[in-house]
Design goal:
heterodimer; A: Ubiquitin-like (UB roll); Fumarate Reductase Iron-sulfur Protein, Chain B, domain 2; 2 domains; 7 strands; B: mainly alpha; 3 helical TM bundles of succinate and fumarate reductases; disordered C terminus; binds protoporphyrin IX containing FE; binds iron/sulfur cluster; binds FE2/S2 (inorganic) cluster
């Protein structure tokens, strides 16, 4: 048997945030969309609506997307108040129209955070995440030929946990969903992903201190441990990584305060 | 940045301050409740306890200063972080939705500030005597200890000690006013709700929590908050139900004033 919600076409009212550009006033505008195939994706539905708008000579709705298969983190709509819309562990591009009912009013807004300024309509500038990454989301390594595989053994549980953290696609839904627009889940994922691996140890303390400082300076909010972030995350990154980062941060502040200073005699074979 | 800078200026640092001061305050309110429950014993107990605390002198002031500093830091951090959080959202969502945040977690500011208002009233009531001055301990006839008051087996206040402040009668007479009692009950109820999220939250903030521990920690938080609330409810509850009665001599004196 085939479920009815996958066979019957549906009509909806789209209530979309329209904003001509950065720092322009924005407002919600309603659009009717009729006879939609329930198996089209949410973004395909926006494509259809945009085709109609273009034919009418109106400005199409600007929205961000790239891979459309949940791996790039570009799509970024808040649908009915939930970042990435209905469903658990999926991005906006993985939402299908069968998740809605005929006659629904669907409210679509951009991710809302001061640190993610609106570019146009539903598109936000999330380059603040790049700045956090640049502050410490890397390891310093020799360039050149790739190192031998398995030259540096990593215990399997650590590798698995690091992979869980590395699954973060940097979409920003955690910030959008957080009651305080905090970036703690993203930063925790990035800090943990490298901090769990042997390659990440040399810069571990410096990494967590620098990434948190940059996060604060960019105007993200502060965590209140309500876990809206992990509930909205398309990759189901767990807030256990936030606890881990808090622990790492406290340790790093203490270690950096009591670290012995090098003598500065040069050392080596001088 | 140095240690102080990391703690007082960063997001996580100020959260840690809030968690540590919150933990100190939990220790205080729990100890305070245990002390107060002595009201269900003979007046020698709670009056002797009061006399003992005052006899500590400088030590009592050290404890008070730690508590005052904790309250100030806790509220400073809460307020500073909240103001930043409002700014961080900018434009609010047109369609508001909560996936899983608990009511207790979303009411932290409300419960916190009401508890603060209660705290100030409470000090005015039983410590300074600005509210219900007629039945304030300094204005009630003084009490003479009927038996020894012991702390950890040692005699702290000897039987027959005169001029002891009558905490027992002050509390019982104060709670005979149903409005005062109701305010206390509501305030400790809100504090219990504050702690419901607060206890959970402080483990996360200090990094002492993961999926394996969270269910157990939450159960501990629920039980502690329930016990704390019921323990606090018992005192005004027993007075209103007539189970705790003032001792006759003091009542007569209080009414004579
Ligand atoms: C006896 C009084 C109080 C006790 C025992 C207490 C205890 C706690 C504890 C243990 C936490 C968790 C710390 C964390 O990890 O974030 C907390 C958080 C908090 N408290 Fe209090 N608190 C008290 C009074 C207040 C007052 C007067 C305010 C007034 C603003 C307040 C506002 C807050 C806020 C906003 C949070 C943060 C909640 C969050 O992160 O979600 N508290 N409190
Ligand atoms: S933690 Fe999850 S919600 Fe946040 S940026 Fe990464 S993938 Fe997106
Ligand atoms: S478009 Fe790439 S994750 Fe949605």
């Amino acid at each position: 048997m085939v479920a009815e919600n996958t066979t019957k076409n549906l009509s909806i009212t789209l209530r979309v945030w329209r904003q001509a550009g950065p720092n322009q006033p924005g407002k919600f505008v309603d659009y009717q969309s009729k006879d939609l195939n329930p198996n089209m994706s949410f973004l395909e539905m926006l494509d259809v609506v945009n085709d109609e708008l273009t034919l009418k000579g109106e400005e199409p709705i600007a929205f961000a997307h790239d891979c459309r298969e949940g791996i790039c983190g570009t799509c970024s709509c808040t649908i009915n108040g939930k970042a990435h819309g209905p469903g658990k562990g999926i991005a906006t591009c993985q939402v299908y129209m069968r998740a809605f009912r005929d006659g629904d009013v669907i409210t679509v807004e951009p991710f809302r955070a001061t640190a993610f300024p609106i570019v146009k309509d539903l598109i936000t500038d999330r380059s603040a995440f790049d700045k956090i990454q640049q502050a410490g989301g890397f390891i310093t390594a020799r360039t050149g030929s790739a190192p031998d595989a398995n030259a540096l053994p990593v215990p399997k549980p650590d590798a698995d946990l690091a992979m869980d953290a590395a699954a973060c696609i940097g979409c920003g839904a955690c910030v959008a969903a957080c009651k305080n627009a905090s970036a703690m889940l993203f930063v925790a994922a990035k800090v943990s992903h490298l901090g769990l691996l042997p390659q990440g140890q040399a810069e571990r303390d410096q990494r967590v201190l620098a990434m948190v400082s940059t996060m604060d300076a960019l105007g993200f909010g502060n965590c209140t441990n309500q876990y809206e972030c992990s509930a909205a995350c398309p990759k189901l990154i767990t807030h256990d990584f936030i606890a881990r980062m808090n622990r790492d941060y406290l340790g790093a502040t203490l270690r950096s305060a009591f670290k012995p200073a090098p003598l500065g005699t040069g050392g080596g074979a001088g | 940045m140095n240690l102080v800078g990391y703690l007082f200026c960063s997001s996580i640092g100020r959260k840690i301050i809030m968690a540590v001061t919150g933990l100190i305050l939990i220790g205080f309110v729990a100890g305070h409740l245990v002390g107060n429950l002595q009201i269900f014993q003979e007046p020698d107990h709670i009056n002797g306890y009061g006399q003992f605390l005052h006899s500590l002198g400088a030590l009592l002031w050290v404890a008070r200063l730690v508590i005052i500093a904790s309250v100030v830091l806790h509220i400073w951090a809460a307020t500073a972080l909240t103001l930043e959080n409002k700014k961080a959202r900018g434009t609010d969502y047109g369609f508001k939705h909560t996936i899983q945040a608990t009511l207790a977690s979303r009411a932290m500011r409300w419960t916190g500030y009401i508890v603060l208002a209660f705290l100030l009233y409470h000090l005015a009531h039983f410590t300074v005597g600005l509210a219900q001055t007629g039945t304030f301990k300094e204005n009630l006839p003084h009490y003479t200890m009927g038996s020894d008051y012991r702390v950890a087996g040692f005699v702290a206040v000897k039987a027959g000690t005169p001029e002891v402040l009558d905490v027992y009668n002050m509390v019982v007479l104060g709670f005979q006013n149903p409005i005062v009692s109701l305010f206390y009950i509501i305030a400790v109820g809100l504090l219990s709700v504050h702690l419901l999220h607060g206890i959970d939250s402080l483990f996360q903030t200090l990094g002492l929590r993961n999926a394996k521990w969270s269910a157990g920690l939450h159960k501990i938080a629920v039980v502690l908050c329930l016990v704390y609330f019921l323990g606090n409810l018992a005192i005004p509850g027993a007075v209103l139900a007539g189970k705790l009665q003032p001792r006759a001599a003091s009542v007569a004196a209080a009414h004579a004033k």
